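pipeline stage [seq->struct] | target=RPW8 domain-containing protein | organism=Linum tenue | residues=845
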Amino acid sequence: MSKHQIMLELSSIVQAMAQVVQDAFIGAVMGELLKAVLEAQRKAAAFKPTLQEIESTLETIIPIAAEIQELSEVLHQDKREIEPLMQVIREGKDLVLKCSRIRWYTCWKKPSYKDKLDALEGSLKSYLDLVLQLQMARDIKKNLVEVKKVQVMVLDRGRRAGLEGYFLPAAIPNPVGFQVPLWELKMEFFKDDTSLLVLSAPPGCGKTTLATLFCHDKDVQERFKDNIFFIRVSKKQTMESVVQRMYMLKGHRDPVFQGEEDAHYHLENLLKSMGSNPILLVLDDVWPETVYILDKLKFNIPGFKVLVTSRSVYPKYKYQKLNPLNDKDSRTLFDNSAFLPDQPKPDIPKDVINQIVKECKGFPLALTVVGRSLCGEPIEVWRTRAMALSEAGPVMEGGELYSELYSCLEKSLDALDKQPKVKQCFMDLALFPEDDLIPAAALIDMWSELYKLDEDGLQAVANLYQLSARNLADLVVTRRERKEPVLKVTILFDRTDAEGYNHHFVTQHDLLRELIIYQSSLEPIEQRDRLIVEIFRNQVPDWCTERKQLSIHCRILSISTDEKFSSSSWRIQAPELQVMVLNFRTKTFTLPKFMTGSNENPLEVLILRNYGVSPADVKNFPQLLSSLSTLKKIRLEQISIPPSLFTTFHFQTLEKITIVLCRVTLAFNPSSSRISQPLPNLKEINIDYCKDLVELPIEICKLTNLKKLRITNCHNLAALPDEIGSLKNLEELTLSSCIGLSELPEAIGYLGNLRSLDISECADVRKLPEAIGELGKNLKRIQMMGCSKNFWVPDSVLKLENLEEVGCDEDTAPLWEPFVQVMKRLKVKVRKEEINLNWLHGGRF
């Protein structure tokens, strides 16, 4: 019998027993029965054996029922009538009291009462027979509660902190050419004298792939179990940031260390606190700039081992080199990429294929990228590519293998020349930091203005799928839905309009990012259309600070800094700047002064992303915004939003605000949130993972042109104001995963243009408001996956004549069954969510 079936069969009994304990009156009745049994044992010795059996049965049932009830409350499970059990308890109490009053002169009644006590014992025994099943149900509930806690903790912490590497990368199915290197790595790593091993190879050789295979290997899993840490390091990391990641995985919120020595001290304490079990720390992509971290990892802790991947060899550490693939494996990997499975291979001459494979030099990255770029292309393209690869010269400075690999990848990008917008989208991925997990929603904001792609993101995500198919990027969907037919069904898509691609992210191989930056740097700085500036350890390029002011004509500008950055004077002008991306990780940040010094800046999209561990203060935000009179979209991540951010200036053009992981208390304070006048044309607000959002400011309800309001993962949001009914033009209201929200106001009935309502994972919301029926003309879609089984659907939904879709889960789908029979347009879709935690390994969200 499956776990689900067991839960269904035991549900009524489990919840009945729980309610007996929970309800004050019923609990008193059961307590009185037990008290009566104990009293009767003292007064009616003739019935003592039977009464002792009854006492034992009650004492067994009560604590289990109490624990089940507590767990049921956490899981928001419904309760059912338990009148048969209550009747047994009431009659049993009366019977025991009568037994205690029997005297010697009424002893003729004993046989009759003895039979009745035996029957009572039998009735209770029938419940006792379920104890093992109750215990199983209790254990299942415990697991469900723990899974729920871990799920919320992991998703919340991962997105809130922007972690790079807590969980293992996804397992790699059917890897080509790594069996022998994996065996060799295990043999060397498991030697007693090996505490730190560097796996070294040129870029694109598969170092991360081999490290991933190692972590998923059966022998490694058995040895290290849950003590495996996989952390991307890269150029910009520090000792503090690495230790922060390890601490936050273990449940510590926002750890702060007073320098590297303090971080080293705390790391040693953390490792020792894990007990005697072996510990594996994998540091992926360590550069010479961060190799000093390895010196800090020498602890006298038995079983603690470190695996490092790096492009370089560091002679002071034990190392093992990973070589490119041999000819046979290279051809296999290339064929897997260039030819569709289960399809006849096109008639491509073997000498052409062999020439292309040869020029890829055994690099897995080159073999897959070039193979994908040729998939489905005619023979003429294959011949041209083979010729170009054989004639290509060095592209970048570095070793011979580096140059050949870059040349190979550069030629493979020629396939994108036929799709210029897709190629531009590919180039824009380098605007974000190395190893970053790039939000698709941020890319959509950019591309809708730069390339006039649709606002809903369909074209943008289609471009991302194309890049993923060519191995030029990886598209990561952190939540997918497994579809199952219930009632009436249509085909479901991985994303819904209400979600706005909030669960879609993009990663890119470091080598491809470097290639983009190299290609973007071929033109003079003043003439580049896309300018990417990376500042590490406060080493600002000279051209930014020269006395003579430099005029740059880029449309897109990205500036990335690390925690060592301090504000500096930028002696530049950007009169044509359309999109700006600022990535930083300091606790306080001062925006470049060139942004605040002119009213001629035509900036349309501003993306400000703090990828540290806690919200940062931005010192000169108001001054910046005063100069951005053309701004249409602004995205803020992990920022402490000041109270005057949206109230001091009139943003006539601002259409969309996205606030993620931000501290909003000051900005949304009633005394400082009068924003209706400064934002007359605002159409969309997105608020995600803002833990200090407790109530929605009434002023937001005065934004009469607002069409989309999305509040997601704000766990402390307790209520919506009745004034929300003033949003007459609102078409989409999303409140998913707001687990503190207890109800929807009746004022929702005034949202006459509402088309989509999403309350998924709002477990404390137990009903739709009666006024929902007032949305009959336009409401087409309701999402309520993860809501309580006790959910109540009012009959007024019958007025929703245009309701087409209800998305829910197995528990709530039956609630809609009566309505489906009447509402002919309505289709109920059961959604089983699959949460993919592997996204956490690749970078911040």
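stage status: PASS
auto-comment: Residues 798 and 819 are 7 Å apart (CA to CA). The chain has a mean pLDDT of 78.
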